[in-house]
Predict the 3D structure of the following.
Amino acid sequence: MAARNAKQGGANATRERILDAALDLFGERGLTGTTVRDIATRAKVNVAAISYHFGGKEELYRAVARMVTETIEGRVRSRAAGVLAAPPADAAAAEAALGTLLETVVDVIVGPAEMRRVARFVIREQMQPTAAFEILFGTFSRLHLVACQLLATAAGLDPEAAETRLRVFLLIGQAIFLRIAEAAVLRRMGLTQYDETFLAGVKAILRQNLHAILAAAREQPA
């Protein structure tokens, strides 16, 4: 039994090393620009190990996409499980919940330095979609749907109206921009990294912007 567990543990460790190496290389070079040999060399495994664990490069790419979505969704749910499970039906509570969701995006995507690797993969897939796009879209669309429901409840809008969907994209985009344009933001802000003080300021401004956007939406004729 101990030998079997040790063997399984070794197989899992190998699989994790391959996924870790593939995340970096696919993010840096894309699917077509990365070879199986590149990944094997980076992961320090035999080429055959990739076939054994994943079947091939395309299957590995999809496995990386699933790992990325599970990481993002898991971290978001750990911080905003209540909001995602039961979005409030009261306008004030919905605004507060949407603010919490925006802050969660900062905590999950912007704050952790290790999320740069994930962001590279996601951004490349947005610019050059592959068959793995549907895996990413599944997670992102679920989060977007909840955010649309919250904004609609807070502002008295139709959650599936084009304007509602666009407003949510723009709201979330404020936070995501800080990850996408990190080098420029750090240079202009005179920082070497996103520290707690900076991120707290980001969250405060996001709440202010949310309040202003909701106020404008409420004043707009139905």
The chain has two domains: 1-55, 62-219. The chain has ten helices and no strands. Residues 187 and 193 are 10 Å apart (CA to CA). Residues 1-7 have pLDDT under 50 and may be disordered.
